[in-house]
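dude i think i finally got it to work??
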Amino acid sequence: MWFGDCFNHLALSLLSLLSLCFFLALLTRLRKRRRRKADEIVVGFFHPYCNAGGGGERVLWCAINAIQNKYPNVQCVVYTGDTDATGDEILSKAQSTFNIKVQRFVNFQHLRTRFLVEAKLYPLLTLLGQSVGSVVLGLEAAFRYPPDIYIDTMGYAFTIPIFKWLCGCETACYVHYPTISSDMLSVVECRNNSFNNRKIIARSRLLTKFKLFYYKLFAYCYGVAGRQSNVVMVNSSWTQGHVDQLWSMSGKTWKIYPPCDVMGSMSLPLDRPVTTGDEKLIISIAQFRPEKDHALQIRSFHRFLSNLNPTEKSNFRLILAGGCRNHGDEARVNELRQLTEELQLGGQIEIQTNISFSKLKELLAAAHVGMHTMKNEHFGIGVVEFQAAGVIVLAHNSGGPEMDIVQKN
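look at this
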């Protein structure tokens, strides 16, 4: 009797959920038809952090520019969670950060539920929590302004089925970095301590087995969601390998390298500006995300200086420059500043956040060495621009730098 009641409640809940999904699908399609002009096509870009100022945002604005230039009847919609900035402010920052000026009107749909994809909300099962949060965020976007063509440009694959099934959209995605990869599974399986595998889990055989099961189940669901995309674009050979493995869509997957300002960097003079003494500038350009491992750069710089005499030490400076997306990134910056003080390097290390395009060019023109410490960097726009500017590059021999940027032949 008890089992039968539970089964009935479960069946009723599933039926209610299916009814709600059907109602939302019908409502969004009616809304889409009601507001359409005769020849208008709406292309929606799902990019909740479009005001962040990183490489993914450069891809977004270049894509919108290209579509607007080629298709005058297309309206571009950007689904953003940057509620603290107006559309004009977002476009102004894109121009000052990337030197990209969008040609025509962009319809910004400000989403209120972006907080649901913040990692800090999910100290446990972070990938699952953020993915469920992205579904809610995607539902808000679909209801606010359903497009004809939906493009996920930020890696929220679980939103793709929403727009395909509920809104009847053609779907596409540009994958910068897979949400889960075989490398992540390998880190857990080998019980290595990493930014995505805590020490307490790495030390426990039982917790490691549980996390491996969780990762494999998540990878399967991630593949199911990704396969709902009609077209898949990836930014590097490393990303393509993992997406092909997880999504099994090699026939619909295209490798499109992210836009790099090579010509602008090559226009910079190779001769570095004359400074007092024999000063050498080392720079790092990357968003302040955990996987970029800025702390390793500071510790490496400290170890390098420990091998020099006092006179030689004073000749070297390190500048860490990058974008801050949220409070989590700002907290990491504060931790890096604290580490700098602990190592007594306050006079030789400087951290600059959310710098302008002109400031970036100044750093590239003055730098002697560019440092990039992320392991399995998906591509590495900064590495390319270091090379184009004549900066000596020190990067991890993996991912994009190994497979796409450095030509071994």
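Residues 33 and 242 are 38 Å apart (CA to CA).
im so relieved honestly
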